[in-house]
Design brief:
It contains twelve helices and 13 strands. The protein has 363 residues and is α+β, with helices and mostly antiparallel strands. The strands form four sheets. It has a four-stranded antiparallel sheet. A four-stranded antiparallel sheet has the order 9-8-7-11. The protein has a three-stranded antiparallel sheet with strand order 2-1-3. It binds iron/sulfur cluster.
C-alpha cells in the first residue's frame, strides 16, 4: 500500500498541467521518470494501482516530485533527457519509435557497422534515422562486406598485425570471411590497425555521402567476375550494389532532410506561457517565450540567428547518442502529429517576419 503522505503531497500540491515527474527511492535514487499533460491526475492514478510494476514502484517510493512545463513537447524533451541522464530502473527503456533505425559505428578496437533501434551515450557514432523496414540490416551487412569491415560479435578477440605480442603465431581467421578475402581478419593478425582504419574511413565517407568508392569497387568486381564467366558471383555482387545504391540515395537525401529539421516551432502553452522552440537539425536547442512585442521579436531573432549559424561538420550526418535520440524524438513527434508541423517554419521564414500558422508578417 502506498504511503499516504505522498498521496497527500500530490493531492494538495500538484496541478493538472503538463510536466515531468520523478518517483524517488531510498537516498533520493530516481526510480522512474514520466511525463504527463495532466500531472496531478496522472500521479494520483498511481495510487490506485494494486499490482504490477507501478504498484511495486509506488510501494518502494519514498518521495515523488515534479517540474511543471509549459506544454507536452517541453515535457517530452525533459523526460527524455532525464531518462538518458539517470537511466532509472523502472524506465526499462525510453518509449521509442521502432519504425526508425540507425547505423551505428561501434567504439571498439576494430569498429563494426551495426543496425540499431536504440541509441546510447557510448561514444559511438550514429547515422540516421532510417525508416526501419528490414532492409537496413541487409544494407549494413552489404556495406561491411564492400568495405571490408568485420561483422563478427563484439567479443571476438582482435589482434592487429602491428600489435606487439609474445605469442602471435598460428592464428587463423575465426570465420570464412577471413579466407574469402571479404574481411582483412584482424582476429588473426592479418592486417594492421592502419589498414583496418583505412577501410573504416571508406565506410564513413560513404555514410556521410561523400564518396561512392565502395560502389565503384563492386562495379570493378562485377566486370572481373563476368570476364571470368563467374556469372553467379557477378549476380550476387549486383544485388549488393542494388542495396548499396538504395542506402546511398537515403544518405544523400539526408542532407536535405536535416535542413528540413531546422525549425522555429511555436507552441501554445499552459495559461498563456506560449513558447518558441529552436530546433536545429532535429535537436531542440533552445526555447524562449513567444515574442509579443517588436522588441521581444528582435531579441528572438537574435537567438534564431545565433542558433542556426552554420557549424563545421554540420552536413556530415554523423550523430552522437544524445543527438540521435533527440533527432528521433523530433521526427516521431511531428510524424505522429502532422498538424503540429503547421506551427513550425524554417528559420529564414521566421527571420523574414512570418507569423507562424497565419502566413502573415509580424508588424
Ligand atoms: S575474419 Fe575474423 S575479424 Fe573478420 S569477420 Fe571473421 S571473425 Fe570477424
Amino acid at each position: 500500500m502506498a504511503p499516504s503522505p505522498l498521496r497527500e503531497k500530490v493531492r494538495t500540491r500538484a496541478e493538472d498541467r503538463p510536466g515531468v515527474y520523478r518517483w524517488l527511492g531510498a537516498g533520493g535514487r530516481i526510480l522512474y521518470v514520466g511525463k504527463s499533460v495532466r500531472l496531478r491526475s496522472r500521479l494520483l492514478s498511481y495510487f490506485r494501482e494494486e499490482r504490477g510494476k507501478a504498484a511495486r514502484m509506488v510501494a518502494e517510493a519514498e518521495d515523488v516530485n515534479w517540474d511543471q512545463r509549459p506544454n507536452e513537447f517541453a515535457a517530452l524533451i525533459r523526460e527524455m533527457r532525464l531518462i538518458r541522464a539517470w537511466q532509472p530502473e523502472y524506465n526499462v527503456q525510453h518509449k521509442r519509435d521502432r519504425r526508425y533505425g540507425f547505423i551505428k559505428i561501434t567504439r571498439e578496437p576494430a569498429p563494426r557497422l551495426v543496425p540499431v533501434s536504440r541509441v546510447h551515450n557510448d561514444g559511438a557514432s550514429y547515422y540516421g534515422p532510417f525508416a526501419q523496414t528490414g532492409w537496413l540490416t541487409q544494407a549494413v551487412h552489404d556495406l561491411s562486406l564492400a568495405t571490408g569491415l568485420r561483422d563478427c560479435p563484439a567479443h571476438t578477440p582482435i589482434h592487429f598485425g602491428d600489435q606487439l605480442e609474445i605469442f602471435s603465431g598460428g592464428r587463423v581467421p575465426r570465420c570464412i570471411r577471413g579466407d574469402t578475402g571479404t574481411c582483412p581478419a584482424p582476429c588473426a593478425g592479418r592486417c594492421t590497425t592502419a589498414e583496418y582504419n583505412r577501410r573504416l574511413r571508406l565506410a564513413c565517407a560513404f555514410l556521410e555521402a561523400r564518396s561512392r568508392a565502395p560502389l565503384a569497387e563492386l562495379e570493378d568486381s562485377v566486370t572481373a567476375a563476368a570476364a571470368e564467366l563467374r556469372f553467379e558471383y557477378a549476380a550476387t555482387i549486383r544485388d549488393r550494389m542494388e542495396t548499396l545504391e538504395k542506402l546511398w540515395s537515403h544518405l544523400s537525401g539526408f542532407r536535405g532532410q536535416m535542413e528540413n529539421l531546422n525549425l522555429v516551432y511555436s507552441v501554445p502553452g499552459y495559461e498563456g506561457d506560449d513558447r518558441i522552440y529552436l530546433i536545429r537539425r532535429g535537436r531542440p536547442c533552445a526555447d524562449l517565450p513567444m515574442p509579443k512585442s517588436s522588441r521581444a521579436r528582435r531579441r528572438a531573432n537574435e537567438a534564431v540567428e545565433e542558433v542556426f549559424q552554420p557549424v563545421p561538420g554540420d552536413r556530415d550526418g554523423r550523430l552522437d547518442g544524445d543527438a540521435a535520440a533527440e533527432v528521433l524524438l523530433t521526427v516521431s513527434w511531428f510524424n505522429r502529429r502532422p498538424r503540429e508541423r503547421e506551427r513550425a517554419v524554417a528559420p529564414e521564414r521566421w527571420l523574414g517576419g512570418v507569423v507562424v500558422g497565419s502566413g502573415r508578417r509580424a508588424g
